[in-house]
Amino acid sequence: MANKNYLQRNLRSIVLKAAKATLKGVLFYMIYFLVWTIVLAPFASMLPWLQLSVETFMAIYITLMVIGELTSGTIYQYFFGVARSLFVIGYLLLTLQGGLIGMTFENVNLLVDLRLFLMMAMLFSLLGLAKSVLQAINYMSEKSEPPLILTPRDARN
User: Fold this and answer.
1) How does DSSP assign 71-137, residue by residue?
2) What are the tens digits of pLDDT across the range 1-39?
3) What is the mean pLDDT of residues 99-121?
4) CA–CA distance, 81 with 51 (Å, rounded to integer)
5) What's the gap between Cα 32 and its chain centre?
């Protein structure tokens, strides 16, 4: 009987984690879709690589986010948080080509300097990386230390 209750609690926990991860992924994709149709769609005709680049980024980012949610409550949650932050940094560096993007429109050369944006995005990703590392350290320290229980006699001394 105790084993059945344990199995039911674990199954309920897994189902809730899966539902939360799915809801978070769908909500994040809906936000991306709205932003794409309202803000970024006009630029897609000028920059043909933009849509493929953004969709690839969102697919990988949402996948890492969902896997992180599915592994919540374990140390792997923080590993996927670190992976997500490193992915953002790497993808921004590769996609934005170091922050300088050059384009040619009808005999006009256009050079766009996105280094400030790139620096700010990388700093935010580094903050997310540091947060995940510190949370992983906190998680491991909580797991390794036994809980301190004071008895009434210890509290008087």
Assistant:
1) TTTSTHHHHHHHHHHHHHHHHHHHHTGGGEEEEEETTEEEEEE-HHHHHHHHHHHHHHHHHHHHHHH
2) 567 777 788 888 888 888 888 999 899 999 988 888 888
3) 84
4) 25
5) 14
